[in-house]
Amino acid sequence: MSITLQNLPQELATLGQARWLQLSSHKDFNCALKDHEQLIVQAISLSDFIFEQISHKPDWLHALLIEEQLFAEQIDYCQHLSTTLATVEDELALHKTLRQFRNFHMLRIAWRDLLNMQPIENSLAQVSDLAIQLINQCNDWLYALLQLRFGTPEGEHGPQPMLVLGMGKLGGGELNFSSDIDLIFTYSAQGDTQGGKKSIEHQQFFIKLAQKLITALNQITADGQVYRVDMRLRPFGDSGPLVLHFDAMEDYYQEQGRDWERYAMLKARILNRPDAYTAELSQILRPFIYRRYLDFSAIDSLRTMKNMIQQEVRRRGLVNNIKLGQGGIREAEFVVQSLQLINGGREPSLQVQSLQRALSELQNLDILPQSSAEKILSSYMWLRKVEHCLQQFADKQTQVLPQNPIDQIRLNHVLGYQQAEDFMQALHQHHNCIHQQFLLLVKDEHENNTKPVDTHDQVAYDLWHLDLEPDEIEALFIKLAKEPLLTFSAEQLSDFYQTYITFKDNLQKRVIGQRGLSILNNLMPLVLKLIWSCEAHNPLTLQNRILTVLHGILGRTAYLQLLWENQGALEQLIRLCDASPWVTEQISRFPLLLDELLNPAALYQPVDKGQFSDELRQVFLRVEPDDLELQIETLRSFKLSQQLKIAAADISNALPIMQVSDYLTYLAEAIINQVVDLAWQQMVDRYGVPICQDTGPKTNEDKGFAILGFGKMGGWELGYGSDLDLVFIHDCQGNEGTNGKKSIESKSFYLKLAQRIVHIFTIKTGLGILYEVDMRLRPSGNAGLLVCHINGFTEYQKHDAWTWEHQALSRARFISGCQRLHTAFSQLRLAILSMPRVLPDLKKEVVDMREKMRTHLAKGTADYIDLKQDKGGIADIEFIVQFMLLAHTKNEPKLAKWTDNIRVLTSLATYDCLLETEVQTLTHAYLAYRNSSHRLALQNGQLAKSTPELLAHQQNVIAIWDKYLT
To answer: Which residue range or ranges hold the Glutamate-ammonia ligase adenylyltransferase repeated domain (predicted)?
Structure first.
């Protein structure tokens, strides 16, 4: 075959001659090749890749030119590769053979392309055919290797192959010269292999095969690489199984397939030779890709994709990128694939992977005017020719116009332009042609009104919607930030960006649904803008907290929609999460709390502390009395929502610290009463009511049962996450049976009632537990009965209780039960606190107990204070108060009236047990500690940072302790 060689520009001629001298002086150079000097000079001046390959393999020139493989219009890659692989005996040899086969034939294609010996259409087909053969025959070779050891994965139609889906341009038969390959692996059905030395599950067999195939193609060796393999388009992306069986694949695409996956699947081609298995797979994929009607439902998602393409082009300024830039290859592909997606269900002829064939069919069906189709195809092929040239210069995957002069000259020469300006003019014309068609597609009449209106809107939009590199993400966050990010370390910023990237990447692992994903895509730019434009304590931390909440609700479209449609609710969420990681954790664990954000007025004004019982009662009016599961969930929901309101009021300083504890305590009381009623009714329904000797049958109003609150519950000092220190008592004399169909002894009834109450409090549901319950303050602690008779409780307190248990009784309060038990307990408490005591002995017992507690529990350090257990902390104040009560109540019975430390301290000053100044000192310290404890709880902290104020309080408390207890 004779070809016409163009005169080389001087720069290329000089380079070509230098390289020719280097080649012709090689010891293995075939002198017969000198007849082809002009052709060789031309080729090696145009491509570094060609020069490098024949420098390493001079004998390849003989095959190309003397054996005239270069001049053959077509090469049978299948036969050539099959013959070559027939002698390969191990994987190492397989890797070498594949790479050398690939390099030789890519050398031939590049040579023919750059010397314009064939049209670009032929080049695209050859590169694709070569790739398909390399993938398929490597797959077959490795399959046979594994069969020897593990046997054959048999299926309905005989041995099951691993089917390989080629995506993108490989699927379309229009692969780039230096492209990576996007693959998806699948097989027919599960089972166990048969006939091998060791049988394994089909899944294991195909995973091993997939791993070996990827290695054989992707690994870089001394001979280079066959192809870069990208598996991210498979179901669930990088986190998904490497190989899926048909049923799992079908389930994924039916239940979780995204619109972008439909778009990507348009180009999917089964690379294996056709058989019954490939036909079955085609039947599975087709309904997902194509609808049976004009698919206008895809228009919104296509419009979103189109906007994302435009945003990326605009933001990155991709003017020199012939693929991604405005009017580039991607826009041409988008035009064609979008029309296929919309019309392909109704027009089977559009169900093709090739862009060229699809354009022809769109024209035949009058979906695209002939002139438009011809212009798109002409411009597309011109750009693909440019793309091939760029990649053939050095076998690198690039679509960016060259900056170095030699490659610029090469490009102009191959395309036949004398001047660079002529090339740029042609490029501009082709870009305009494609971009005009792109703009006409799925045009949004309102898109000019819906584009972001200011810089922050635009930056936030880009951050979420565009596929960015870490440095690009960092640059955009810097633009978005209200304050400079200079205060954060590089490590903090790196962790932050990685968290953001991970959140985006994890979306493909979650079952969100198309509607949820659409709402999220609208919501996220607004979220980012609000976070970075508000007066946040730390925008990095705040954003991570918001992402935590969003991660918790990704599968719940209703909550995503709530935040999208109610910007006020979103702003409240941001405000609360900024203030407290504890609130963040609560909302992320229990998304129903988001409903509370809809009414900011109510959110920051919790129910009046005396109205919790009424509110809870009204809530229970909407719950069927026999729906025990819903009753338990309702209690948890009520507690969570009311606790959030209290925290919101606390954060906004609408409630002083004393009232925060009051509200939390009243809330617990209301819930305790409701739990007792629920448990009582359940027991009565099953066993009837207890019959007591002295008081007769029990009733809802007189249950003969009571709950005592100790510690923080007794002292009106509950905090966020506090457990409940409770003791159960009853006053039912005798042991008559209950009056139900299933009668049990009354003593057993109260035991079962107590067990049911604890169960309702502590059973874990989707909304967590209600409260942790601590019963260790009952008589004999954990060794004692769960519920005891009031007489037994009295006897224990009078004769067997330790001094520390009397201290605990000073903080005990009647919570729930009949008036009779209330009176009996109050009398007992006063009697115990009024017992005569020897002060030196009392002092020693109190001090010994305090030292024992501090030794085992204090966690303070040089820089951080344990507010409760360190010396001079909350526990010291409590022990001072308890010591004073036990020491002086005999003489001043009114000291026993209160159970909270603040009012007891006031009483101690009133009755001259402590000096007024000492009471003020202890009160101020106690309130400061309590306030810090609440703040720590909202920040999920345990120890307080040591400050001059806290240290001063410590010293003051220690001084008073030393005065009275040393």
So the answer is: 40-277, 570-827
